[in-house]
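ugh ok fine here u go
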Amino acid sequence: MTRSAAAAGPLVTLDDVYLTLDSAAGPVEILRGISLTIKAGETVALLGPSGSGKSSLMMVIGGLERPSAGRIEVAGHDLGAISEDALARLRRQHIGIVFQAFHLIPTMTALENVAIPLELAGRRDAFATAASGLERVGLDHRLGHYPSQLSGGEQQRVAIARAFIAAPDLLLADEPTGNLDGATGAVVIDCLFEQHARQGGSLLLITHDSSLAERCERQIRLGDGRIVEDRRKLPLRRAL
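structure:
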């Protein structure tokens, strides 16, 4: 499904989703009946205390974890009805992910890390496009540097460039500034929102920072694996 086609309906739909994981003490319910939709182009902040299920919810939306029950649809695809290979293709075509721990491949340069999704998709212009992506996040002078030669903020900007490089319909960001100091984190967040504004798509951002959440159009708060609040910003009223 193309982005224009996805705009006709919700990009993400969750219907009564549960996630139960085994532990030494027995089964643990992580998600408990989550139902929500995310529109194409919408920016959503996901908040809640540690252990509330935020990262697990992102994992099931990204097809990285299979729910125990319920239905998940992303970009017109029922995630429960497709194979692991098809899920991997779906992520390459429709989903970008930025993690708190940058997840760059240490033996590859910044350019090679960003080019990976395009190479896997068979794009002949993978490296030229990756170079443009790094330029957009202010790292055109770091193309040949390895992750160990980059600061934490630079590594996260490489991860952001990689996540956006294939113009995903949905960008998932899990505490993207969690490993950074305040000033560096502010630069990275500005970079993330700038790339989203440039390319569009939907953004689901996990954060503990309420001021950061206010930059999103919608805030969803989890508690004990359930949605306890779903709030949208009121549109600004024009002065008469």
